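Issue 218. Parser rejects a valid record. Input:
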Amino acid sequence: KKVGVIGLSVGQSVSLTLALERAFGEIRLADFDTLELNNLNRIRSGVHEMGTLKVVNTAREIAELDPFLKVTIFPEGITKENMDRFFTEGGELDLLIEECDSVDIKILARQKAKVLRIPVVMDMSDRGCMDVERFDLEPERPIMHGWIDHLDLEAAGRPMTNEEKIPYMLPIVGTETLSTRMKASMIEMGETISTWPQLASSVTLGGAMTTDVYRRIMLGQFKVSGRWYVDLDELIADPVGAEPGSRETSLSPPEKSTVATTGDLGRKAAAMPIPPSVAQELAIAGALAPSAGNTQPWHFALENGRLNVLHNGIRSASRWDPDHLMAHLALGASIENMSIKSVDLDIPVNVELLPEGGSSNLIASIEAAHGARPIMNERSKQLAPWIVSRCTNRKVVNPSELPSRTARALEEVVTMDSCCTLRIIEDRGTIADLADLCSRSEMVRLLDPIGHHEFFKNEVRWTPEEAASTRDGLDLATMEMTQGQLAALRIASDEGAIRLVRSWNGGKALQRFSRTGILNATAIAVVMAPDLGVKSRLTAGRAAQRLWMEANRLGWSVHPISAPIFLTHAKHLITDLDKDLRLELDEVEKSMERIFQGTGTPLFMVRLSPAGQPSTRSLRLPVEDMFTIYKSEN
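Output the parser choked on:
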């Protein structure tokens, strides 16, 4: 029998095991690489062979076992030019064992094997994964079991960047079926791990399994295609229990519900009742406001002629928002939308924040008024179209210069009718510092077990269908991630992998998700308030909404990056936060205090960039789910 082996890390173990069993008449070895120090944890050889071509090293090892076995080497590896020779010279291969790292060769070799009706076997060196494609028995079988049929396979033969390879590699390795330890290792790659991890135990197991599968295929004892796992971690394991680094936490997602009553039924009817049709238009405008994680923590109720804005605390319940700071900012933005919409409808209103005698979830009461201030009328007319058009844009583009007139316009909309001020940061050093603080804060959230669960299980919408079904949370498409970032996000969503990363004192790679975008910001805009009181939060939310709409109106994209503000505030209220995460946030808080010393209390922070239009916009819940008209109004 003639067997070909492409790739000589796992491939060396396979080749030597085949040689020990004298399981071939000829073996063809292909690999262009040389033996290096970091190969010696899995390749049977000594330091005296370092610098030797892997094909030569493997051929020597086989010769020492049996000098009469025929070994043909391809020291240039497999290329388009020599592929025919590898497969057919001296007779066609009976079976191909593919163990290379190159995406294009993986695909091209299978395409060639399919044409020649040669079976392909591959060991994955993770969970004892064995992959078999019987092109000899199934000549119409799609390569890689059809998992990459949706991709341009012709493009695989052209040079590709690492980013371009990712859509091809993910279906091949099977992201969802990788071991927890491999996922954790991939998170740490480039930080505490320098390259794809392989151990001699896995490689040796792969050599044994591949040889066994090869022998049975050649003897006609094994005839199917598929993927199998000989997972030693599952087969030989302690009784099921907690994994290293885990701790018991309550991870149940909060139940979604609406608010049943305002507790305001006893108040005197408004002198000028808001008609139900107008109230509904205002509610629709209010519901288009931004909210952290797109939780939409509001409910609107028309009652005794007033439109009441209520906080739906169940929708916004979060470990990292224990006293509703994020929710109050969102509610303030919602109130601002309704105020601007009322002017656009030529029905000016008075807004009373936190009315006395209302229930604890009553945030504001809106009544029709006889007139409005001219400055608000003029500015509101300008901003009104942006109630619908305003959006988050997470695209990363190169920074440009922020015109001084734009900075002045943003400052004006924040400070008008407000106790808030705006700080615009354009210094590249300070922007870099804020990028570091934001990324460290996001890392803490993902390393915290409950924060991890809230983000990946409750907040992220992984498919367009899921986003359309829930109409809340963060549609993955809105994150504007590269294929590499999306792959990393899916791997980081594994709770077991994150527990392992924690037990290794790792996790710094998680900072990559947010850092690049902030480093490339044209400017950082920060809404400053006098204090952290609820009224200040609501007022800051209103000012932040005007800032956002004005920035969009002037052609600037906005992406909120307030994690350092929210998380350092929350850590004072969370009693069970792990010590290392608390210490990390302590350092973030000290750095934030140095940056904003003497300028007020930062409550909302965004990055500004010339990024154009986003690829996708977040959806909103239907108005009937968040707007109530009490019977007395009908």
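Fixed in the parser; the record now loads. The CA atoms of residues 252 and 407 lie 44 Å apart.
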